[in-house]
C-alpha cells in the first residue's frame, strides 16, 4: 500500500498515553502532532528491527547492558 502524503486520524488515548504526550511536549517543546508523529515512526523502526531478530538494549551508567522488552 502506497502511503498518502498525509492522513488524518481520530484516536482516543488511554491515560498513560495522554501523560506521555504531555511529558514529551513539555520536554521537547514540540507540538502534540509532532510528538505523536515521531513516536509512531520510532515504534515502526523498533518493530522492524526486532522482527529482524535484533534486540533493544540500554547501556547503564556503569557500562552494563539491559535488554528492553516492548509488549
Task: Offer a few descriptive terms.
71 residues, mainly alpha, 2 strands
Strand order within the widest sheet?
1-2
Please provide the count of β strands.
2
Overall mean pLDDT: 94
Treating each run of at least 4 consecutive H or I residues as one helix, how many helices? 2
Unreliable stretches covering 5 or more consecutive residues: none
Distance between the termini: 26 Å
- Hey, roughly how much beta strand do the residues contain? 5-15%
Helix content: 40-55%
Compressed to H and E, one letter per element, the order equals HHEE
Question: Could you describe the largest sheet, including whether it forms a barrel?
Answer: 2 strands, antiparallel
Cα-atom Rg, whole angstroms?
15 Å
Q: Which structural class do you get from the secondary structure elements?
A: mainly alpha
Which outline best applies? extended
